[in-house]
Amino acid sequence: MNLSFFDQFTSPYLLGIPLILLSVLFPTLLFPTPNNRWVTNRLSTLQLWLLNLITKQLMIPLSKKGHKWALILTSLMILLLTINLLGLLPYMFTPTTQLSMNMALAFPLWLATLLTGLRNQPTTSLGHLLPEGTPTPLIPALIMIETASLLIRSLALGVRLTANLTAGHLLIQLIST
Amino acid sequence: VLHTTRALHTAQQRLAPLPPLPEKGGEVRYGLIPEEFFQFLYPKTGVTGPYMLGTGLLLYFLSKEIYVINHETVAAACILSVIIYGIKKYGSDVAAFADKLNEEKVAKALSVKNEAIKDLETAIEQEKKEQWRVEGCKYLFDSKRNNVAMLLETNYRERLLTVYNEVKKRLDYQVAMQNLKRQKEQDHMIQWVERNVAQSITPQQQKESIAKCILDLKALSKTAQAAV
Question: InterPro entries annotated for this entry (chain B) (predicted)?
Fold first, then answer.
């Protein structure tokens, strides 16, 4: 069977059984769950060191209240990192090249930030719709534009990841031949 | 996930104390296939059994085109060789790094304990020194007591001397008064005697005495002339 360059982006099937779930969950198998030992084996130590590094990088600029986002952001970062890097190997499928997965990741997170901002500080979040220092006649048009950009943001995030990964992996395949 | 190790649910699960981590991980051959597989096949097929199985499987997949050779195969071979080379070269360094992380963690906790012990030991030594100082205080108090006694003694003697001097002054005054009085009486008496004698010398007596003196002088002058 002749493989074209786009075959790496088709959802994997084995004898008619969709393997998409397996391919999404496979990267999680590579990280052993941390057990409740204090001095762990080498793999767990390295993994914990990496997690600490990433979490520190993410959380140091934030205030104390922002630290409750630490778990979801760090785990999201590690998941995407692993999925994307593993997709570079041959015979591996990258789930993030599918628009469905990226939209599933982007839309809830975007909606969560929007609703959290609206609930906790409604005036400030609505105030973000207008950049500072705009001349008065432009205000209605600018508010429309900002609202549209806000609503489009989820779509933009999802499509951005998809496009980047697809293009990247494809480009690597093209360059390597 | 091995929190605890028990063989196939035969014994009770014990959560603490955790059994220690084994020194080495499971033995693998060629980094992928555990030794247990080779041992499992050894009784039936001997040493070359698993290798024959592997070769047979590979050739079967290749011949029946279950495993297709395409561009990905070449890519897989190259990437695999690079990965193996990287692991062989940097594997020990990464392991040493992981070990160092663990060592630092344990050393930090140990250092807390050691510093606490050291602080307590210095506290004990200082306490002993304070006790020694308290013992030495006895001598200090004795010497201070001697000092104070000496001061008191000196002060008492000084005051005694002052008293003696004062009393002597008063007694000297009394003695001087008596002497003065006697002197004055004596002088007065002498003056009175002289005055009375001078008064008692009448003119008649005066002439007689002068004439006698002249006669005496003449007589003396005669004898004196003779001597010369």
Answer: ATP_synth_Bsub_B/MI25, ATP_synth_F0_suB
Domain total for chain B? 2
Tell me which residue range forms the domain holding B77.
70-161
User: Is the same domain home to B62 and B87?
Assistant: no
- Least CB–CB distance from A36: residue in B3, B70, B76: B3
Cβ burial, residue A158 (10 Å; 0-12/13-18/19+):
buried
The interface pTM score, or ipTM, of the predicted complex is 0.72
Question: Model confidence over B148-198: pLDDT tens digits?
Answer: 999 999 999 999 999 999 999 999 999 999 999 999 999 999 999 999 988
Asked if the model's pLDDT at residue B82 lies above 60, the reply is yes
In 3D space, the residue among B210, B201, B81 whose CA is nearest the CA of residue A90 turns out to be B81
Query: B105 — contact with chain A (CB < 8 Å)?
Result: yes
Number of folded domains that form chain A: 2
Shared domain for A141 and A160, answered yes or no, is: yes
d(CA A54, CA B152): 82
Which residues constitute the domain of residue A39? 1-94
Which residue would you say has higher pLDDT here, A69 or B106?
Answer: B106
Coil, helix or strand for B28?
Answer: strand
Of B3, B21, B70, the CB nearest to A3: B70
Distance from C-alpha of A91 to C-alpha of A84, rounded to nearest angstrom? 14
Interface membership of A72 toward B (CB under 8 Å): no
pTM of the model: 0.65
Contact A42 B73 (CB under 8 A): no
**Contacting residues of B for A50, CB less than 8 Å apart:** none
Tokens describing residue B183:
């002197």
A37 touches chain B (CB under 8 A): yes
Q: 3-state DSSP call for residue B29?
A: strand
Domain boundary among A94, A129, A162: A94
Last residue of a domain, one of A64, A94, A124: A94
Chain-chain contact of A176 with B75 (C-beta, under 8 angstroms): yes
A107 and A63 in a common domain: no
Say how many C-beta atoms besides its own lie within 10 A of residue A23's C-beta: 19
Q: Can you tell me whether residue B198 is helix, strand or coil? A: helix
| Token pair in block for residue B24 | 């080495």
